Amino acid sequence: MKTLISGYKSITSLGGLTILSSNKESLCLGELEMSLKVEDVMVEDVVTVEADVSVKRAVEMMNKYEIGCLIVTKRGKPIGIVTERDMLTRVLAEALSPEKTKIADVMSRPLIVADPHMDLEEAARLMFKMKVKKLPVVSNDKLVGLVTLTDLARFQPQVIKILKKIQTMETTPKRMKKVADYYVV
Predict the structure, then answer these.
(1) Nearest partner of 18 among 143, 124, 110, 83, judged by Cα
(2) pLDDT recorded at residue 151
(3) Which residues of the chain have pLDDT under 50?
(4) φ, ψ dihedrals at 20, nearest 5°
(5) Predicted pLDDT at 157
(6) The CATH number of the domain where 116 resides is what?
(7) Most buried residue, 22, 31, 49, 157, by most Cβ within 10 Å?
């Protein structure tokens, strides 16, 4: 394993997934201990889209299910994520054709994922370090759920305490500031 970010080790598996595991000492938040796991709060019904689908079709799916992201798959394995923001910055702002542009061309990758048995504290820390608000949950190369920063913030007061602690230790990434400011007073 090679060090990717201070305190994190990178494990890359087939399909372009990047799974980050931590060095336990670097994630210690003093007296704040959590026994809740990602699997306790994740959404299990995750909508996916194949990489060769058009952006137009993907947007139709997002509208139909009233969701803000799709997990991109190739032959059933998760390889990326596409969000509303990706559509705005990589399609609309670049004046690309939604009918002709494939999701594979605008998705975010490598896919940063969580393990279902990961502590919520570690998942929140990972989101801040990697500047992402959504973590697909993968077990044995299979997509099993999705957890978002909003899910963590809404779940319980203990998570709010952890987010406050992380904010004092690190600069809140700009794209996460709105959620953090709204839920973490």
Answers:
(1) 110
(2) 82
(3) 1-34
(4) -105, 130
(5) 63
(6) 3.10.580.10
(7) 49
